[in-house]
Specification:
Keywords: Hydrolase
Protein name: Acyl-CoA thioester hydrolase
Number of strands: 5
Largest sheet: 5 strands, antiparallel
GO molecular function: fatty acyl-CoA hydrolase activity
CATH superfamily: Hotdog Thioesterase
Helix content: 25-40%
InterPro entries: 4-hydroxybenzoyl-CoA_TE, HotDog_dom_sf
Length: about 120
């Protein structure tokens, strides 16, 4: 919480990361794109704060999906929200790039990764 009793803006990025890591790692393994588990870097975050979120016992929902796939990057879009009644607290976007840590360089998305990610577009 920040001084005004709202969730701190930096904490939202932690929430988004937790949701993205769970979503991609679990899904990548299920779809046979294991390299996505260990070879990704965040290239960019965009976070749009829509409403303050205050402390409460009920969890919020984080919805996320793949919105764009390019040759050497892909984008995850998110919403942090309540569904009943619908209220959006944050809309966000993260661009991720595949990285070869052994060679210490960016790499292109493999055909297997592209196929797996394509199944998650708008998921």
């Amino acid at each position: 919480m920040d001084a005004l009793g709202h969730v701190n803006n930096g904490r939202y990025v932690d929430y988004l990361q937790d949701a993205r890591v769970d979503f991609l790692f679990r899904t990548a393994k299920e779809l046979g794109a294991d390299d996505l588990e260990t070879g990704l870097l965040v290239a960019r975050h965009e976070v749009h704060y829509r409403a303050p979120l205050v402390f409460r016992d009920e969890p919020v929902r984080i919805e996320l999906w793949i919105s764009e796939i390019k040759a050497a990057s892909f984008t995850v879009d998110y919403e942090i929200l309540d569904t009943e009644p619908r209220r959006t607290y944050v809309e966000a976007r993260t661009r991720l790039v595949p990285f070869d840590f052994g060679a210490e360089r960016l790499r292109r998305i493999s055909p297997v990764e592209r196929e797996a990610l394509s199944k998650l577009v708008g998921a």
